[in-house]
Amino acid sequence: MKTDDGLVRRAIEGDERAMRQLWSLHAPRIDALVRRLIPDPDRAADVAQEVWIQIFRALPSFRFDAQFGTWAHRIAVNGTLNAIRRAKRVDLAEAGGPVQEDTAAVEPDDEAPFVRASILEAASRLAPGARTVFVLHDIEGYTHEEIAESLGITPGGSKSQLFKARAKLKRWLAHLIDGHPRDAHTTV
Amino acid sequence: MHTPLSDHLSAERMAALADDELTTSEAAHVAVCPSCVAEISAHRRLLVLAREEARIPSVPSTRWETLAPQLAAAGLIRRRALRWPARVAAALLFTVGGALVGRYSALPRAVASAPEFAAVANIDDSMPIFHSASEALATLNRAERDYRHASAYLVAQNPETTVTEQRDAYRARLAALDEVAQATAAGLQEVPNDPVLNQYYLSTVGARNATLRQLKGALPVGYRLERY
Hints:
Chain A is mainly alpha-helical. Chain A has helices at residues 5-12, 16-37, 41-58, 68-95, 119-123, 128-139, 144-151, 155-172, 174-177.
């Protein structure tokens, strides 16, 4: 039996102690995912809370052949993406513009000098769709097929947005990565 | 087909090469093009930074104290486990309560039967000997007050006790105290001068009022307690 299975079974029965332990074990990764996708800290905290309610609500559908952490992470991804879509619809509706699906578009190129100390801060400058693809693929390790399914785009579209996002980030983070003898991975 | 130095890789392709393999023709170009080598290396370093980001420990932005009431409201929390202070308090209630009842109920028999009282006294030399009912009642009052203070201290010492759990504990305690008060009040209808029932009734009402004050203190500002 996997580590979390006993906790999950008790949590399904509504045992608060088990639920709290599951939250305690997995909140650092789940909440960090939400923060990476939603740069505004207050909104990220609200969405993270919604995500946790979704996770516990969906718990009876958990299949014990999977890892709880992986399963919960996937729910967090979808829950966060839905929250981003809802916010986008509200923003567009308030602006009087048409309601459009998220097409993972990269914002227009901005050549102004932009120096950021961390990769997350730089990623927060990307358009939501591009940030989502970058975070899910390069940070969280999802495949293009999985990302495409979550975003409702093609795997090719996911790749295209990722490469554009990487190109922009590389330019923004040039001071961190250009000519930096980091490790063997960087050998071409 | 990439030919040496005449046809650099596209920016998008170099970004893809962060985690992709060079084709034969690309490798031929890169072997003699320091510019493309630098670009691809930078992309690979960026990817390494991104992968490292996922491993950096972070503090949750959610708090269980905020999450738990919402889960309870959604009907997802159905069983609250008692934490150790509550269990200790419950054990203390039985132990202290039992001891007090034992002392009171044993005292008249001890007076009536000196050898039996002496036998009990020998079991525990520290057992107090009372010379009057008022002295015994004063001791009982002190014990009851000390018990309440000790319970409150133990609860306050538990860092895991949440506001929700505290409120639920107060509500459960109030419900239990109400039952005790009703039972002792019913008993006093039959034997109005019984000292044990009187003491239990008064202690219960006092503990109930103290708990009510604690419960109000644990509620959010502006929240009006209408039921528990």
